[in-house]
Design brief:
single chain; mainly beta; 14 strands
Length: 336
């Protein structure tokens, strides 16, 4: 049985790839997991399709989350990181509605969630102007908060570390830190708890021209899906999304690099890279060109090439000699 866990077990952006990120509102405690070096997984004929699926699901989870921030797709609320990133577009509104304070003061208030529970917010407004500026931040604590059938708990810290222009508008650039501390989501059939810290660098020129880079030193996810427990980790991970205008609309190009490990990979590690970016048109769900390369132990590797019609060509080079001796195809929907 093939089990798909978001983000390879870590599935990862809602309308401007993450226009703000974590640490705001404070606390000196760190939830960032230590970067650990796992034993590399030997990729073989018996596991290369599973390796491909885990690699794609992890990358596309982050991609879907990231694209949602850039307004390229709509992200759901079925994973902690995706929900967290979706909150960045609300930062300016939270500051606008908070009571005015003296410079450097914090303001606390709560918001009711649509399906019950609440979100407690602590806003730090460095200059007290009631607007979202550099070094301002929000600490969000979900208390049995139910949104769209998903129950959320835990803490999310967001800090805007730099900004040019008006953050969250149609044209600006900025950097954000995001930190999740036991931030969890739960539905009737699945649960996930995320811990870790990341940064996002954004540049938005228009609705069809923007870029975002997500840098993840270390992030862990654990939970269960379909009755199967899992854990997964990202380390030294970097995701870049570039939205470029075309005559008709725009394209989205994605590049990734970093290490992925977890229980669905025999608790071992693989390394991901994109020799050529994965590219899709605005009206398409899946990429039509580009390659994702997965490296394991002793030079073993899997190459996943995007083809037209929503098809991915999966090739295995088990001995690392540069010759791919085995191949198969899957739809991207099968790999997500």
């Amino acid at each position: 049985m093939s089990v798909r866990i978001p983000l390879g077990g870590l599935a990862a952006l809602s309308t401007l790839l993450l226009a703000a990120c974590g640490g705001g509102g404070g606390g000196s405690e760190s939830s960032t997991p230590p970067v650990q070096t796992a034993t590399a997984l030997a990729v073989s004929a018996s596991n290369y399709t599973t390796v491909a699926q885990q690699s794609v699901s992890s990358s596309l989870y982050l991609l879907d989350s990231a694209e949602s921030v850039l307004g390229a797709q709509s992200a759901g609320l079925n994973a902690p990181l995706r929900y967290a990133l979706a909150q960045t577009e609300r930062l300016a509104a939270w500051f606008a509605k908070a009571p005015r304070s003296v410079a450097g003061a914090t303001q606390s208030y709560s918001e009711a969630c649509a399906g019950g529970g609440r979100i407690d917010l602590v806003l730090t407004d460095v200059n007290g102007n009631g607007q979202l500026d550099a070094n301002d931040g929000v600490k969000l604590t979900a208390v049995s908060c139910v949104e769209s059938g998903v129950t959320l708990n835990g803490t999310l810290d967001m800090t805007l570390t730099a900004v040019t222009g008006s953050f969250g508008t149609v044209s600006y650039s900025g950097s954000v830190r995001l930190r999740l501390s036991n931030f969890s989501s739960q539905t009737a059939t699945a649960s996930a708890t995320g811990n870790g810290e990341m940064t996002v660098d954004l540049s938005v020129n228009s609705a069809t021209s923007s870029s975002a880079t997500l840098t993840v030193p270390a992030f862990t996810l654990s939970g269960q899906s379909g009755g199967v427990s899992y854990n997964s980790s990202l380390s030294n991970y970097r995701l870049s999304v570039v939205k470029a205008p075309t005559t008709a609309s725009y394209t989205v190009a994605v590049s990734v690099s970093g290490d992925l490990s977890g229980s669905l990979l025999e608790s071992k590690q693989i390394s991901l890279s994109t020799p050529t970016p994965l590219l899709r048109n605005a009206t398409d769900t899946d990429p039509s060109s580009g390659q994702l390369l997965v490296r394991g132990a002793a030079g073993s590797q899997v190459r996943i090439s995007a083809q037209a019609g929503g098809v991915a060509l999966i090739e295995l080079d088990a001995d690392g000699n540069g010759s791919y001796e085995l191949s198969t195809t899957r739809s991207w929907s099968q790999l997500r």
